[in-house]
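User: Hi! I'm working on a homework problem where we have to compare a predicted structure to a textbook description. Could you give me the structure for the chain below?
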Amino acid sequence: MSVPHHRRAAALVTALTGCVGLALASPAHATYPGKNGLIAFHSQTADGTQIFTVRPNGSDLRQITHVDGDAGSPDWSPDGRMIAFDIATEVSVQIATMNADGSGLHTLGIAPGNIVEADASFTPDGRRLLFNTSNGSVETQSSMKLDGTGRRLIKTGPSWDPNVSPDGRRLAFTAFNDQPGGQALFTSGVDGSNPTATTPFSFNVGAKLDWAPDGRQLAFIHNADFARPGESANIATIRPNGAGLRFVTNYRGAKVNAFVGTYSPDGRWIVFRLEAHGRFGLYKVRPDGTHLRPILGLSGFAPRFIDWGARYPRSE
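Assistant: Happy to help. Predicted structure tokens:
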């Protein structure tokens, strides 16, 4: 069986660099305002991880990639026309784009010296991609145009998955300290300046996080890596200044866990992966924790790194 997308990326960086921070991260993508369209995620297949889409009512589940290696970490463009994603092989991880139906696949290439370029997310105007890199000794957050040109350095140093607020003024990302499970939600200027901790490191925040479409809240995973044994992973929201912490899910005992995907473009839902007693499902819930609804019910099929896109007329 093929190595899962995120594990292959982690193994590559471990083997070639010993720096696992970048590749262990899952993508964190901002949801921009709009009407609700398709939901994208990746899941394991007989041919490695591949990207799927599904309608919010659970119908029309489709596998839209069939790449050699592992395709994963999908992120919708703000208008719902395109998806940026990663392709991981035994020798590199690089970014590609495609149309919403999987056509028009275009690999952006990788800068000389880099072995990992991953976790791409669109800027609010849809003209650039933010992404993480590793050359074996140095990790960065950078941006580039959709054709791979016009690269700009945002910051140097290990951190996870920068994504831009809907108004284009702030970044959110996960940073970590040297303690096991020490992972915190941070915000900064869009250029990486003035990083500020939004949560304590003890929250063990997951790399997958998302801005609400109005920019007033951030959704994240609490206890993502089970740094507190015996406790569940849960979804929480918080204001960018660190106020207003609220738990959206409140599972207990580590047998049932919730891993955030993103907000819906209309801001009325949060989509997430529910794991219950060894089974997996794609679910949605209101940001206040009410109206839990299945999209794909519990089974052995695990949707991961979930992103809810805006409706694009040609795809509906």
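For your comparison, note the following. Helices lie at 5-16, 21-24. Residues 48 and 215 are 35 Å apart (CA to CA). Good luck with the assignment!
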